[in-house]
Amino acid sequence: MNIHEYQAKELLEKFGAATTRGKVASSPEEAERIARELAPAEVVVKAQIHAGGRGKGTFANGFKGGVHVCKTPEEAREIASKMLGQTLVTHQTGPAGRVVNKVLVTEAAQIQREIYFAILRDRPTAAPLVVASTEGGVEIERVATESPGKIIRESIDPLAGLQPFQMRKVAKELEFESSQLKAASKLFDGLYRAFIGLDCSMVEVNPLVVTPKGEVLALDAKFNFDDNALYRHPEIAAMRDIAEEDPREVEASKHGLNYIGLDGNIGCLVNGAGLAMATMDIIKFYGGSPANFLDVGGGATEEQVTEAFKILIGDKKVQAILVNIFGGIMQCDVIAQGIINAAKTVHLSVPLVVRLEGTNVEKGKKLLQESSVALITADDLADAAEKVVKAARSR
Amino acid sequence: MSVLVNKNTRLVVQGITGSAGTFHTRQCMEYGTNVVAGVTPGKGGQKFDDQVLVFDTVAEARRETGCNVSMIFVPPAGAADAILEAVDAGVELVVCITEGIPVMDMMRVKAQMAGKKSRLIGPNCPGIITPGAAKIGIMPGYIHKPGNIGVISRSGTLTYEAVWQLTSRGHGQSTCIGIGGDPINGMSHLDAVRIFNDDPGTEAMILIGEIGGSAEEEAAAWIEDNCRKPVAAFIAGVTAPPGRRMGHAGAIVSGGKGTAVGKIEALRAAGVAVAETPATMADTLIARMKR
Predict the structure, then answer these.
(1) What secondary structure does DSSP assign to B135-183, as a single string?
(2) Could you tell me the pTM of the whole model?
(3) In terms of CB atoms within 10 Å, which of A71, A81, B19, B284 comes out highest?
(4) Complex ipTM, two decimals?
């Protein structure tokens, strides 16, 4: 799950991690009022969408840039009025862009130098890992490939936590002055407590800045949360903004389905995440292109299968559908009944290829044969993939 | 021959009275697994299906029944605690089926298990089966057949696919281990490969991986230097877009790491025969065995 920049800022404040002063606004008047509170400092007005590349983006109304420095509160109001309610297109949003419903108004920080600082969970060591670099403000992947020596790594014992000496060690490696060690450690500590306390998979601050006065501030923070742990963080779950998500994925998640929209034209309905991925792969192998990843899970009900099927049929890009089920716990007749139910309520206008194997396979096949649903049956995975690619092509 | 579980396995089921626990315990018993105890706190003294004694704690179950393998169906919020309870009681093998355990919990479990003699399989896995002897998990028993191929996989249904391909072609399995799809788990691909490599009853292996992490690469490096048995592999997720989590909590390509192509190259370089599609997992291994 992703959150907005202003929400990340609120989390930083909650955990005592120093950041620039600022607030979120939903109207130009509110933006002006916040800017007035921050005066005489210059402010930055930032469009709040989940996608990156906002600064270089363009609004559908022609206004350029989703991030602007404003000298006066009046200017902040004017800039906010050009952003709010408008669609911002960046290299990450795709041509459709995203509607800006909120802007963040913060004081413009004076920057002496920029640092990269992140805490993530490291898979090989099964422990939290600090990754930091004096080369902040740029893409860390680029630093890692171009100058790997500039990347600092500090592993954290998950039972003991980030120790004060480790914070000082990292701060020194990041070339903080002795007088700044305390402020840097306090910031690192806040970030680590947020990382652990909110069940994050990553907290990334880029840039973390040092001001000419020697303040140490988190200028922009990105939080990634562990979806498995959201049940114990209702305040984080409440930050979800479904306007930022693919409507097909929102619909799927309502029914407990694991769906990810892709760009191809072959809809897939599969049980199990690994098999769902493998099904996408084999479609590609035979020259087709999957429209989605969809795992109905191990214990899906008839209703869930019906809903899953409706999402596939409702996708205008879909030219053919492949159902690939290896029934273990999930029984093939349940899948078959779900398909039949869906076909009754929604008109099936594209070819449907079905491959069933496993528990109750004969019962499932019989149900489908006896129904009026027009379908192409397949004997195995390869046969199914070939048939669905051919069917999609012939349309 | 087999690894880890067999006819001598004495299984305790943690969360035996829940709906998933009940359903799958019955399936395991029907398959012939020796279920000796159940654990549900607060239900100690009850009998499951008039056969299996339920205890309040794993320690009691272990003391009273000598259970040596645990299967966990406890819901996510209590699953990490259930694993640690089994480890504390000295249960040799802990198989955690539960899906959706917070990763931070597993991080602590892993750290607390360091130096202990118990092994963990999972979480978020189908379990482990030695065909004809013991089924500890949620896999459909009938697709398996006793034999000499070891199967290792992160994914449930994709494992069934591989097993079914083997069985349909007349090749049985020594043991099939589902290690689970979470980013932090117990037994790794490499651990399982080593176990099968040491097992005289296993002649060849199928290793099924997916995008995310570097466990497949680590297994590949070890295989290149140490493994003389034929190995075939399949890696799911060649078409997965970067930055998107494909179902399993661990299945994500991020920062250019954990790609399917990278894993496939590492495996091929180690002399592993990599199946081009999931439809040819068994055929790829059979061809490799004939070489």
Answers:
(1) EEESS-GGG--EEEEEEEES-HHHHHHHHHHHHHTT--EEEEEE--SSS
(2) 0.93
(3) B284
(4) 0.93
